[in-house]
């Protein structure tokens, strides 16, 4: 299973996503904002398989975090999530850095599937997807 860094400023969403991912056996470390997440990534270099981050956050937003993480940890898979259409549009310029942008709200099954796809390197809409 994977080591995942989950960055989300909303306590309830962070707890929901953490539980969802732990159901699949992943080890989940959490951060409340992008600045904290970047500190964790730097301190624990190479530990994480996936960065799952909200876009709208205080201190450092998910797009700035994704850009820094992609620069400093190019092997790290990055999956963003947002409930705001305009933020989703901002993230589309990062197609080479970010695996996908998941729209909120999402179900337990949707977040688990998005993470499984990101970890497997399968892009949304890829015909290789099984079930």
Question: Could you characterize what this model shows?
Answer:
- The chain is of the alpha/beta class and 131 residues long.
- The protein has a single domain (3-120), classed as 3-Layer(aba) Sandwich (Rossmann fold), CATH 3.40.50.
- Helix content is 41%, strand content 19%.
- It has a five-stranded parallel beta sheet with strand order 2-1-3-4-5, sandwiched between helices.
- The mean pLDDT is 89.
Structural features:
single chain; 131 residues; alpha/beta; Rossmann fold; 41% helix
**DSSP strand content:** 15-25%
Topology as H/E string? EHEHEHEHEH
For the secondary structure, the number of strands is: 5
CATH domain class name:
Alpha Beta
Number of domains: 1
For CATH, the homologous superfamily is named as Response regulator
CATH topology category name: Rossmann fold
Q: Average pLDDT value? A: 89
Unreliable residue runs: none
Please state how the strands of the largest beta sheet are arranged side by side.
2-1-3-4-5
Biggest sheet descriptor: 5 strands, parallel
What's the alpha carbon Rg, rounded to whole Å? 13 Å
Q: Roughly how much helix do the residues carry, as a percent range? A: 40-55%
- Please state the overall shape, judged from the principal axes of the Cα atoms: globular
Structural class: alpha/beta
Head-to-tail CA distance between termini: 20 Å
List the total number of helices.
5
Please give the CATH architecture.
3-Layer(aba) Sandwich
